[in-house]
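Sample pair:
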Amino acid sequence: MSTTVGKLIEYIDADLHAEYVLERYREGRTGKDTSVSNPKFDFAPVKFKPMKKIPDGITSFEELDSGHPAHKIFSQRGIPREHWKSIYYCSNFFEFTNSLIPNKYPSLEGDHPRMIIPFFDEDGEMFAYQGRAFGNEKPKYYTIILDETKPKIFGLDRLQKDKEYFVVEGPIDSLFLPNTIAVAQSDLRVPYDKSLCTLVPDNEPRNKEIVRQIEKFIDEGYRVTLWPQTIKYKDINDMVDGGMTQDEILEIIHTHTYQGLVAKTNFVNWKKI
């Protein structure tokens, strides 16, 4: 930010300025399968590892004033309150990223606010983050990697590897289910115990990439959730927005998770391409 603009903003109410910036960029059960030993999920309470230093320039949604426009948008998503402290608001995404990776964005033209979703490792160290758009900004997500040696997995700071766990695509989706991690891509395979793992792809039976990946998961022996046709939502966040509860979502996952030959049969009926 230039010195001149910085001086001007000093004279503008902070909440009004934040609202102005955001407004500029804001526009937008089910039969049981008995041939698979459907996992009886037994989850312990979420345990967060203590987070180490968080970079300057971002503020957790837990700390934002309830009247802040970004707080209003965030709260509408229904994200469980225990996660609010680990998701952040950033008023100038390009400028913030340049403070961590010099000259990542040579030009600050078009800089705008984004939600910051940090990826923490098992020790609570931030090694990557996503910048999610509040409105119709393109792209919807920017993914910034700070340490290429770490696996790009969201939720490692709270994953209990010795318990049944889920793998989903979207980091925000993972916040609605217990003991769940996200990989921010359609390939949901992770380098942990396959016998404890249930892969929960997005509900996109007409998406060629999703369909191709699911077929691969089934061929490799993973347990895979295939959403029933009664579910019209694309992902778990959409289901929550549509009024579904965590228990309802878990019940559908439990009754529509398949493996082996039964998975292959149900997959043929599920895909639409």
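The chain has nine helices and ten strands.
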